Every structure is written in structure tokens, then in C-alpha cells.
């Protein structure tokens, strides 16, 4: 039995704690805040409840595996889980209204043909076929296994070169998502906006992200998105409950200030005057912060992604949720180029940005059937600056102009500014720029998990970082 201390009770910390305790280790978790779940938080007021981080689950197999491995029962025995259908509604500045089905690539193609004209679905489908090749090439090394000791093969983007004819043969190969949009989607404004939305949601600049980032829409459209009854916070509750069942010891309001080292190896952590001895330490805190603030003597490659995050506006609305309302509506930016400039070139708040509108059909989130809980999320620079209250007003006007007017129904709202940059998933290509640090750190006895370690950001990958690391450590 090893004594293991985990820094952070976010989803990766909870998943790792439950797995390692099940394997027979003695696990202690130190959490700086007063609760668990990290970004999977909840805001409650006047009978309304909102997720304050992610709100939908992709790749539920990750947490199904966790439920089975730590308790021999299906995930559905712990939380209510249902596929979201339709997957999303998309409103474009030219008035086009697109409804995408969940987990149906054929259905997506038909919807695109209906919205944008015949041939649009075929174009998109060809891109998704090439994205499938990326998925098959990178699924194991970038999602299921430790980062290879020699990651150089992952420095090359596995996105297949599309057939090129005529003068196109003389141009450079497709290298970025923007290249995919221009060359393979024909620069179609709607298809381009659809592709870019997946990138922006992950904090990626489509002009620099590798073409292999097409794997993001491929995964979502192939494997679907799922809703957890009561919001994703219910998933954090379930994993925390599993930790308690397995005897994990939690210390909240206990920020770790130092990873203790003896004979060149991590031997515990310090939290102010308190000491927690350990044979192994797992850190779920930002890996770059861990190094920059000298909490641990580790070497972490400099981050290669711009500092953009998620601005969230929570809306308590009077009136019932209209029947047939999709869970997620995306109001696309009026001008893609202007939005990218405001995010990545001259950081500021885009005037008419891409907005995610989340409208769950869940009675657990509202005081009664005569009210609705709605969340707006927008990708913005982390240092968005002042004026967020006026910007929230502007966002409501922006939605109204797109045909989604919620203004007269607002009882109150809460603005949650971005507190940290979005951390994209690990991606192959661009000389390794989008690879996150390996789980086994440069300090023996210290492992890295969570969004800023392999395999990167996102709820599914948080669970996978825990699974990979627990597999490396093994049973007691």
C-alpha cells in the first residue's frame, strides 16, 4: 500500500483518488477551495441552479469505465444520463437556421444540405472522413496511453492530404483548420463558422491549430453528447461519493504551497505549516503554475496556446421553457475575422461574437415549471477588462437580433468572468506545440494530471489523465 497525496479535488483529482483507493492505496486529497469538482461547479439562487463550467458530457465511456472499475456498477446507476437530441441548433448571421442531430454523421450531412444547399453535407463528410483517420492514429497515444517517451512522431499532423488537382497541386499542404475551411470547405461562410466554433470552444485559434483538430467535431458528431440530470455537478457529486466509499481522506481549504522532496524524490506536500507525507504525489493544479511558482522543482514546456477563457452569464427567466427548445443553440459571430482579431490579435471583447446558449429541460434546475434557467457562454480574452455588465446587455441584444430574444424574461443574472485560460486537448502536429506535459513529471514520485497535463483539457480527458496515471502506478 502506497501513501498517495493528490493536490486538487477537481474532476481529475476525484477520478484518480477513487481509482487509486480502489487499487488498495491510502489516498489523501488536499484542496485549496472549500469544495470539490473544480471547474464542474454549481451556482444556486432563489430555486435556480446552474452549471458554472462544462454542461454536457462527451465520451461518457470514460466515466462509465470509472464507475465499473471503482464500484462494479454502471454509470447510469449513479447519475441520470441521456443523449441530447438534437445535438445543437445554429443561427447564422444571414438568417440560416441549422438543426444538427446527435451522433448521426449521415443526419448531419442531410441537415447541412438542407440548410446550405446540396453538396454541403458531402464536403463536410469528406473532412470528417479525414478526421476519422486522425482519430484512429491518435486515439491511443493521445487519449488512452501515457505520452510516448519519444513524442516526436506526434509532432507531425496525421491529417491526410486531400486529393488535389490542377493548380491546387502546386499549393502548400493543408496545415491548419483555416486551411481546411478555405480549401476543403470552399470558404463557405456557414461551414467555416461551424468548424471554427469547435476550435473556439476549446480555446484554439483556427488559423494556427493543426488541421488534425478536425477530430474535435468528428468525436462529437460520431459519439454524441450527453446530459446529466441535475447538471454536470451531479457527476462530481457521484465521483466524490465514490471516493468517500473507498476511504479517501479530504482536506478542504488546504492550499498546497510546496511539494516536499527528499533524496531527489517527492515525499509529500506542505500546506502552510501542515505536512502530509507520501510515497507518491499527484498534482492536478496548473502544471505551469506548479513550475513558475516553484511549488515543485519540475520542468514544464512553455504553454503554446493563447490565453482565452470562458465568460458565462447565468440567466434566471420568468416563463416556462418553450416546448421543443433545443438544449444548445449557437448564435454565430457576424464576422469570423473580426472575432478572431478580438480574441487573438488585439485582445478585447468582440462586438458580435459566437455565443453558446444552454437551455436544459430539467425540473431540478428551476423553482417550478413557470421558470427557466439559461446560461450563455462566450470565448473571450482572459484579461477581458472592465465593462462586463454592459457587455452582458449587449450579448442579449445580439441574441435578440439573431431571433432569440430573452430580454423581457430576465429576472436576474449573474456574470462569471473567466478565471483561467481554456486548455485545449492534446493534438498532434505543429512540432508538438499542442502536446501537454507527460503525466510522469521530471521529479521522481510526482505525477501530473488534469487539464494542463496529458491528454489535455476537457472533462473526458480529465478522467483519462486519472485513468492513465492510475494504470502507471498500479495496484498496491
UniProtKB/TrEMBL annotation:
InterPro entries on file: Amino_oxidase, FAD/NAD-bd_sf
Region of interest (Disordered), residue spans: 146-165, 417-436
Pfam families recorded: Amino_oxidase (PF01593)
Residue ranges of every copy of the Amine oxidase domain listed in the record: 11-297
Domain of life: Bacteria
Gene Ontology molecular function: oxidoreductase activity
Membrane spanning stretches: none
Protein name: Phytoene dehydrogenase-like protein
Species of the source: Kitasatospora atroaurantiaca
